[in-house]
Structures are given as C-alpha cells and as structure tokens.
Amino acid sequence: MDWGLIIKASGITAATFVTAAFVFGFFRIKIANRLVIHRRLGTAAFILALTHGSIVVYTNYFM
Q1: Where are the domains of the chain?
Q2: Whole-number Å distance between alpha carbons of 13 and 45
Q3: pTM to 2 decimal places
Q4: Would you tell me the crossing angle of helices 34-61 and 3-26 to the nearest 10 degrees?
Q5: pLDDT tens, 3-32?
Q6: How crowded is the C-beta side of 60, counted as CA atoms within 13 Å?
C-alpha cells in the first residue's frame, strides 16, 4: 500500500472524528449517552491524529 494513501485516509478519518466529537459536544442533541459518545469520538480522533502525525514524521524524516 502506498504511504500517501495511508496518510490521506488517516488524516481524513481523524478530521471526521474531530468534527463528529465537536457536533456531539457543542450541540445539545437529545441522545441518552451524548457525553459518552463525545468522549469516545474524541479519544478515537486523538489516537488517529497521533497515528497520522507519526506516519508523516516517519515518511519525511526516516525514509
């Protein structure tokens, strides 16, 4: 698999999760576990962003 494709996919996925976490955190949507969903989306977005950043640093400096 191409590194560029992996970088783009992880970046887009991280941005999507950040946007979803923002929506669940900012807007008062009537869902029973809204804050739990917000926290899990935020954690997943953080992990994806760290993965994305580490792949970018690896490909730019160590390859």
Answers
A1: 3-61
A2: 8
A3: 0.84
A4: 150
A5: 889 999 999 999 999 999 999 989 888 888
A6: 7
* Phi and psi based region of residue 38 (left: phi greater than 0; alpha: psi -120 to 50; beta: remaining): alpha
Q: What is the mean pLDDT of residues 54-63?
A: 91
The owner of tokens 């580490």 is: 54
What is the C-alpha separation between 40 and 60, in angstroms, rounded?
Answer: 30
Q: What percent of the chain has pLDDT over 90?
A: 71
- The H or E element containing residue 52 is helix 34-61
Q: Measure the CA–CA gap between 12 and 33, rounded to whole angstroms.
A: 25
Cβ atoms < 10 Å from Cβ of 56: 14
Residues 6+ apart with CB under 8 A from 61: none
Tally of residues, the chain: 63
